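A note from the maintainers: we've had questions about how concatenated examples are separated. There is no special marker in the raw files; a new sequence line simply starts the next protein. For clarity in this README we add a label.
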Amino acid sequence: MHTQSLLALTEALQQRRFSSTELTKHYLDRINNAKALNAFITIDAECALAAAARADKLLKNGEGKTFTGIPIAHKDIFCTEKMTTTCGSKMLTNFNAPYSATVVKRLEEQGAIVLGKTNMDEFAMGSANENSYFGPVKNPWDHTRVSGGSSGGSAAAVAADLVPFATGSDTGGSVRQPAAFCGISGLKPTYGLVSRFGMVAYASSLDQAGALAHSAEDLALILKAMAGFDELDSTSINQPVPDYLAALNKPLQSIRIGLPACFFHPDIDHDIQQAIHTAVTIFEQAGAKIVELDLTLQSLWVPCYYVIACAEASSNLSRYDGIRFGHRTSKAKTLQELITRSRTEGFGIEVKRRILTGAHLLSSGYFDDYYLQAQKVRRMIQEELQGVLAQVDVILGPTTPSCAFKLGEKIKNPTQHYLADIFTVAANLAGLPALSIPAGFSAGLPIGMQLIGSHFSEACLLNLAHYYQQCTNWHQTRPQECQKEPK
């Protein structure tokens, strides 16, 4: 069952070829057999099986919706009433949200069954999923390598067929980069298309809810359910949600694909460059026009992103003081000591690093020189990308400069970690939609290809990705150990 696509699973359930209870038990068994990956923080088997039983009654009566009876997982950054929301941090190990995120509610309204919450970099800060209080997530293709971050738990769970799809959040590439490392498809929608209500904030102007699945077809089905205006989210945009699934098979003859020269410099892994050029050939044969681009501000993407992200993180995480909620120290004698010790004990090293960096950037002596300048550069980056996307429909290139690196390899050098997002952060700075799909392998490790489009061009991105996946089978390839049936 776990080898079938999401669309095939929904059809099989509606046609009663197997029950939701059988499917849910199957995935729970697979999760139990894959504990070594450390992909999950929380599992609620009892609640999931009860929901599956209810789904079977609805399906029997012909009352099923899009995802009725489909097991899924949520990144542990989305608030859920029935499970703890930890954000991968000691600070929130016992936090039970009084409400569920809009994304969680919308998927549940379409019948999805939540099996559990996936592991993640603490407060979504990281590019390797090594910063979690609950330990690192391992890559299903090679347990000695990272799964990518911060949505590494969701990516590993989907890649290992522990769930058909999972939610994620993308602040600077946190859906696309782990999707590339784990050999699956990951979508970051346009900022404002999917509600952020109930998604714990890291950097509010950059954060966006997304999804991870095996194929563009699956993502089209998921996005239709997740997208749409939410009056509870002040950044939500009120406009009609298209039928992404119906748009998958449009012809590519008029599509213009831009190739930035800066995405192909010598430091990029040779196999990755070769895989992208092979993909370009496939699109050319379909009638797409290839346009060479020059992104002059690419070298400023990462520094601009980290100034803004750290500044916003410092502000957002100031609420965790050990008083209102979150971890509270047992060793304090004064109010100041309570706050200081609670934050010292509750936050991990990377979170502390970014909070301190952000506080420094926002201080009176440095605000104008760093934060204000970064906002001006951000506007320049936005304008350059919008200008380029007026000439082409899509910007194409690698998702990451290398394949998944070894666990612990870059942990002592934060700058090397940050450079793993060198191709992904621009989409967040400009609020653009971006998609990563599998494009080959290098030494047995997956390669990711990224497509970036103009605002609300998700249908175009998914159309291109779907065509490519019809011509190749990279998205259907699974890690060898994951092909085994649970005992």
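[label: protein 2]
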Amino acid sequence: MLTIGVDQCGLKWGSVVLRGNFSAKIDNKGRLKIPTAFRSTIEETYGSLLFVTSLTGDSVRIYPMPVWIGIEEKLARVPSTHPSRSRFFDRVNFFGQPTEFDKQGRVLVHGRVREAASMGGEVDVFGQYDHLEIWNHDRFVERLDGDPYTDDDARALSEFGI
């Protein structure tokens, strides 16, 4: 999904943004059919190589490989002895695997993260700017109910002009 805007000088600018929510299914072999709108945007912009992982085990994150490599480059600047860096890598590597789209636009989701995130059957696929986040629908609704958007959130974002 391409966002086009005009800057103060009247010049057009564009950036690829993954946004919105689509329903999808994970089949009994653990393959997630990526919604076409997301898949075509990712393939056209980044190619077909992906990194599928989770940080908490609650959801699945699918990063186009160039986006994931950018995260790794930032982490390379963090000292290897930093405990937060180690905890981050422990989790994303425990749950993660590199993969790619198959010819039908599906992505294999590692059994370990599928089990932790209760992934099977119908799921919600959310665009998160430069990656996708996949949630078990009921688990996500519980998350929304348990962590509502508050006036404090609105005030915090207003500091950024939102």
